[in-house]
Amino acid sequence: MGYLERLRGYLERVARAPEGLPAVHVDLAAHRRRFAAAWEEVVASRKQLHSGDAPPERWQRDIWHKEDQLLYDMRWDLPTFVEEVADQLVESLVPDASAEELGKLINVAIGFAIGAEDTSGARGLDEEIGRIAQTACARLQRSYPRYGWESPARYTFEIRATHKHADRYTLTRSGTTLLQLPGLDAVRWLLALEAAQSLGPADEWRVSPELAAQLLKEPQREVEADELLDGSWPFSLATVRRLGAMKLLQYQGQDLERGFKGWSYAAFDRARPLLEDIAEQRATPFAVLADALLRDEVALALDGIRPDPERALRESAAAATALQARMVVHEIRNALVPAQIALSRLVRELGQVTDGEPFQRYRGRVDAGIHRALAFADEMLRVANLGVEPAAPFDVSAALRDAVAGLAGELNGNLRCAPLEAAPAVVGPRGRFVLAIANVLRNAAQAVAGREGIVEVSLGVKEDALVLCVDDDGPGAPPDQRRAIFDAGVALRAGGSGQGLALVRQVIEGEMAGSVACGDSPLGGARFEIVIPLRRGRTP
């Protein structure tokens, strides 16, 4: 199983654990005791075989010598063996094993590795444990160090694809995004996450712009052991090995037959564009999304892990990035698609005049430029949407209470709210829905600001839809502006950004397949009516 497949398998297990995936713990002291006991068993069995005066045959001495060498290797590097075996057992054999069960199986693997008699009690399981033990032993004999990133649990935690709380791992948006991406895009996403958090060339968990530039400068290189010791090779060997595991380069360790005690690498051609993005620190769609999601993670940590109503009202960096991407793509398409159509019509109308070689050459460049710009816009939107909160069923009454709680100060006691006790669930991005409702409430609060006004919220069911109304007794909205106020950049109030109600339409109509409208209120001001179908809406 390749490294990327192992990461996916682990994250899928995390995603399937509703309460979070428990961290795997091993009792290294207990395994050392088992190793010592198993060693004694091997020595005792040898004495029983040769209790007389006759010396052992040469072939037996050769076998014992190999066994002794393995015993010494395991003695000095037992943690590597135990970690390797534990990871393989959990990934491929016993994903739901308790710490006690896992410990027993690791002890069986230790016994198998050094020739002691041991069993799990099941023949098929013994064969698989034997295979895993053999693989771990081969690693020890080749003196291959085990790096922290080789454990999917440790690596995904270090790059913030998972979050650990109360000894359990849960997925972050970064981890969810990885599961949505295929093949090379998944590798590109991992590199974007790593580069956004890199601590420099020596960082063993994350690729740095400096290392990427080095691999571009010298796609193939042999690194002598002395270069690691004197610092002339300042880059992390662990990170180079990880890039090899991601199939971006070929890594070769020591070659003692030709007297080479260092290591070498050769970067593959397909790695070049990915490394260029990192080395030049380009603001690619993946890099922008990685930065936004990581800023959200930091904000969540500063808020004490669990979001409160105030947190729910603050639009996340990832959601802001996606919204900005939608607006940019909309404007790009509005500008380029008509130009593309106009160019095609111009060519048809000019007829034979366009048959000349210069015209065709320049037309090809124009067409290619338009297609490239449209393709980039589509890719930017696709990547930005990966980080947006996915649609899921939620309780509208509870979401409404969160929005009201976050705006208690701005409403200043003017709110009258009587939501249904048990409103039917709707499907959509709950966090963005709370933000959208907060924007409508804030708009109403501003309409009655400075006087004893009224803001009234009602929630009801009409046929197959949920209807939410926000009324106020302010000045209302001019009839000819009631649709335009939902467009980005349109504001009726001095100092307004024109983005708040644009987000409302984006969430309600674009993401939940509903509708939002502004009209006259029975209170004398404006009424904002939000209608949400009681069925699955479109996802962002």
UniProtKB/TrEMBL annotation:
Q: Which residues form the Histidine kinase domain?
A: 327-536
| Pfam family for this entry, one | HATPase_c
Question: What EC class is this?
Answer: transferase
Keyword field contains ATP-binding: yes
Superkingdom, according to UniProt? Answer: Bacteria
- GO terms under cellular component: plasma membrane
Query: Its catalytic activity?
Result: ATP + protein L-histidine = ADP + protein N-phospho-L-histidine
Q: Which UniProt keywords apply?
A: ATP-binding, Kinase, Nucleotide-binding, Transferase
What Enzyme Commission number(s) apply to this enzyme? Answer: 2.7.13.3
What is a GO molecular function of this protein?
phosphorelay sensor kinase activity
Which PANTHER family would you find in this protein's record?
SENSOR PROTEIN CREC, SENSOR PROTEIN RSTB
Descriptive protein name: histidine kinase
